[in-house]
């Protein structure tokens, strides 16, 4: 089967950073699906894992943690899917990735693809939807109620993949006032199109901007990027007994002692936790993805795909990684299909 892999961890402008390879087609084990991958999307985690380091892989390593495709075969004991089902999912960071023609995945973390979306449009959603859903409703504990609330949700980094779907989920499923951050006209417009009530500039001090919008303080904060840079201001902005959730990797320790005076709580969100730990109920991600698909098909949520970089090739994937590294992408980048003419 065709796949995109690496042997060395190199700068993305090096042609060998990601290469086209041929690998054996894998067989599904108990509880597993083999999916014929039709589309993938690229996330910051792809770039972080691929980042240059003095390490060499003896066998090709396939990355990628978003896919949409069709179930090609099932292993013993599979109950949720059958061959021919259209699916979408985010995989597990502990297993080979989705940048391959066929991919093996635990059925418990797979959802039925939204019927109203193409494979490319659907591939943009799994990892970010699970991350945003778990962060908002499980970690931060935002009530899923459309009843108007006096509480405010601040989403730092609203135009990225997670921010784009988090804005929609909060606006459509909760009664909070949604404030997103952005810094450019195109990212500001994107956040507004996703449903943000207000957009503020994260290149400027957040405190005066938020004090005008939420003078009582911000009850919920989803910090998706540059947490270490914004952390003192986020603590200052937070309402007493407020909740701060984060998904990024701060480059320096956070002064969590500063949170004590307001009795603030800190929440980490990693969507790979459920696939990594049996005790964390991996089946819940199946439920989340199916619920997101229902909301998409009902017109409540929309895809966050903004660019299709073309067929799934090493050259196109390197372009996508470079775009993510630029820090200027809006929404999600996808790749779809394979070049024709392959025997």
UniProtKB/TrEMBL annotation:
InterPro entries associated with the record: ADH-like_N (IPR013154), ADH_Zn_typ-1 (IPR014182), ER (IPR020843), GroES-like_sf (IPR011032), NAD(P)-bd_dom_sf (IPR036291), Zinc-ADH_QOR/CCCR (IPR051603)
Pfam short name (any one): ADH_N
Gene3D superfamilies noted in UniProt: Medium-chain alcohol dehydrogenases, catalytic domain, NAD(P)-binding Rossmann-like Domain
Record GO terms (molecular function): oxidoreductase activity; zinc ion binding
Signal peptide (from-to): none
Keyword terms, alphabetized: Metal-binding, NADP, Oxidoreductase, Zinc
Span of domain Enoyl reductase (ER): 13-335
Record-stated family: Belongs to the zinc-containing alcohol dehydrogenase family. Quinone oxidoreductase subfamily.
Entry protein name: Zinc-type alcohol dehydrogenase-like protein
Organism whose genome encodes this protein: Pseudomyxococcus hansupus
């Amino acid at each position: 089967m065709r796949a995109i892999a690496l042997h060395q961890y190199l700068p993305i402008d090096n042609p060998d950073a990601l290469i086209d390879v041929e690998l054996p087609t894998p067989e599904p084990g108990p509880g597993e699906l083999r999916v014929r991958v039709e589309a993938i999307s690229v996330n910051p985690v792809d770039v972080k894992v691929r980042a240059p380091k003095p390490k060499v892989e003896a066998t090709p390593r396939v990355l990628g943690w978003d896919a949409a495709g069709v179930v090609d075969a099932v292993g013993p004991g599979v109950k949720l899917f059958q061959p021919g089902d259209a699916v979408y999912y985010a995989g597990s960071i502990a297993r080979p990735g989705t940048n391959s023609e066929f991919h093996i995945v635990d059925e418990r973390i797979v959802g039925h693809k939204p019927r109203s979306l193409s494979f490319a449009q659907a591939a943009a959603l799994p990892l970010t939807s699970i991350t945003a859903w778990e962060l908002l409703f499980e970690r931060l504990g935002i009530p899923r109620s459309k009843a108007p609330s006096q509480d405010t949700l601040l989403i730092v980094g609203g135009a990225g993949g997670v921010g784009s779907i988090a804005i929609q989920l909060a606006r459509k499923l909760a009664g909070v006032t949604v404030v997103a951050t952005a810094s450019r006209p195109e990212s500001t417009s994107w956040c507004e199109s996703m449903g943000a009530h207000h957009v503020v500039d994260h290149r400027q001090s957040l405190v005066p901007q938020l004090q005008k919008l939420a003078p009582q303080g911000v009850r919920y904060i989803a910090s998706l990027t540059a947490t270490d840079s914004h952390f003192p201001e986020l603590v200052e902005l937070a309402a007493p007994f407020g909740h701060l959730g984060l998904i990024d990797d701060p480059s320096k320790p956070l002064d969590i002692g500063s949170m004590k005076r307001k009795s603030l709580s800190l929440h980490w969100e990693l969507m790979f936790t459920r696939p990594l730990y049996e005790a964390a109920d991996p089946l819940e991600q199946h439920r989340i993805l199916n619920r997101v698909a229902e909301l998409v098909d009902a017109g409540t949520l929309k895809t966050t795909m903004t660019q299709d970089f073309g067929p799934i090739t090493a050259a196109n994937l390197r372009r996508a990684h470079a775009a993510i590294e630029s820090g200027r992408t809006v929404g999600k980048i996808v790749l779809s299909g394979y070049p024709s003419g392959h025997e």
